[in-house]
Structures are given as C-alpha cells and as structure tokens.
Amino acid sequence: MKELEDRILSEGIVREGDVLKVDSFLNHRCDTQLYDHMGAEWARLFAGEPVDKILTIEASGIGIACVAARHFGNVPVVFARKTESVNLDGSQYRTQIHSYTYGRDYQVIVAKRFLTPGEHVLIIDDFLANGCALNGLLKICEDAGVSVTGIGIAVEKGFQPGGKSLRKRGYHLESLAIVDSMDPATGRIVFREQ
Ligand code: 5GP
C-alpha cells in the first residue's frame, strides 16, 4: 500500500535491534485517515471472505482494528488484554506471548463469551516480526473453535520469520507494507514489491 510505505519512508525511524518506530502515525499519535485507508485496503484484499468479528491485541491493534471494522459491515472488534492477574474461573481463554519490543513474556486473555465457536474471525495487528503475538491469537482462536478467515497486518518485517511461517501454514495473510531490509546506520528502508 503506497500511502503506508510513503509514511514509513518519511516518518519511520530505524532503531537498533530491528525495531521500526512509527509512533508519529501508527503507534502513539494515530492518523485516523490513514487507518481508514488501511481498513479499505483490507476490505478489498479480503473481499468475499466471511468476517463475523475482528480480533486484535492491545494496545496498538485496537484503533486500527476499530477503524477497519467500519469497512467490514461494522463487525464487533475484540481485543486480547494483557494481564498479570490469574483468573481461575475458566471464563477466559488465555495464552502466553513473548513481547518483541519489551523482550519478556506476558499473559493475554479473551473472555470466552466474546468468541463464539464456528464464527469467522479476521485477525488484525500493527506489526509482524517473529509471529509470537499472532501465534498467541491463533492459539486463542483454536481454543475457542472459531475459524480464522485471515490475518491483516499493517507492517510486516519480511526479513524476520513470522510471515513466511504463517503463509506456509496456509493462512491468508495480507500485509499492507513488507519491509525487506532496514538499516539503523543509514535509515534506509527497502520494501518488497507486492
Ligand atoms: P512478533 O510477536 O511478531 O515477534 O512481534 C509483533 C509485535 O511486536 C507487534 O504486536 C508489535 O507490537 C511489536 N513489534 C514487533 N516489531 C516491531 C517494530 O519493529 N516496531 C514496532 N513499533 N513494534 C514492533
């Protein structure tokens, strides 16, 4: 998606540790018009495929998913919550995720009553790196017995293994921008032709 790539080129900052900082429009200050265009693009890419609900993960996924939902017939958005607390009453799906940006593990939960077995779920998130966040969401989908229609990602770092592995597993994965390489010394970012 050229508009997203252009914003990454003009405002993205390449950090050491393969981190791309895009907080001026995606992760901290939110450009809602860009979100809207991203939602329209996913709607085009997933046209004709069933979507009853969008699943994402807090925090950055929420805004993107909510705006995208407007392009999918206003389906509800459910976000996995990060939590420290242990709830043993069995009313939640839970899984452990390793955080790419913080380098530690955390628990995420989704209330069972917000995922209905058999429904069709589109997963949306801001970044795809090693795939840990998505694997956690996919585990929750599997536990809930929902069917994953596809995965919409804003920025995939194509030089990290998450995207390749998910496509190999047969998921319909649509990343709006795929970074093939980025250099913290020069700031140069190269995108994959799509
Ligand atoms: P993964 O779980 O695929 O390794 O990493 C994806 C998650 O880590 C995303 O939800 C995102 O929050 C965060 N993340 C991974 N790489 C980057 C990056 O380069 N920049 C930013 N801003 N977040 C990232």
Word description of this protein:
This protein is α/β, with parallel strands linked by helices and 194 residues long. It contains six helices and ten strands, in the order αββααβαββββαβαββ. The strands form two sheets. An eight-stranded mixed beta sheet has the order 5-6-4-3-7-8-9-10, with helices on both faces. The protein has a two-stranded antiparallel sheet with strand order 1-2. Strand 7, helix 5 and strand 8 (147-157) form a beta-alpha-beta unit. Helix 3 (32-45) crosses helix 4 (60-69). The mean pLDDT is 96. Bound molecules: guanosine-5'-monophosphate.
Note the gap between the termini: 9 Å
The secondary structure category is: alpha/beta
Q: How many runs of DSSP E, i.e. beta strands?
A: 10
What integer is the average pLDDT? 96
Return Rg in Å: 16 Å
Q: Which stretches are low in confidence, meaning pLDDT under 50 for 5 or more residues running?
A: none
Bound molecules: guanosine-5'-monophosphate
Helix content: 25-40%
Shape: globular
Portion of residues in beta strands equals 25-35%
Characterize the biggest β-sheet. Answer: 8 strands, mixed
The total count of helices amounts to 6
Strand order of the largest sheet: 5-6-4-3-7-8-9-10
Element pattern in H and E: HEEHHEHEEEEHEHEE
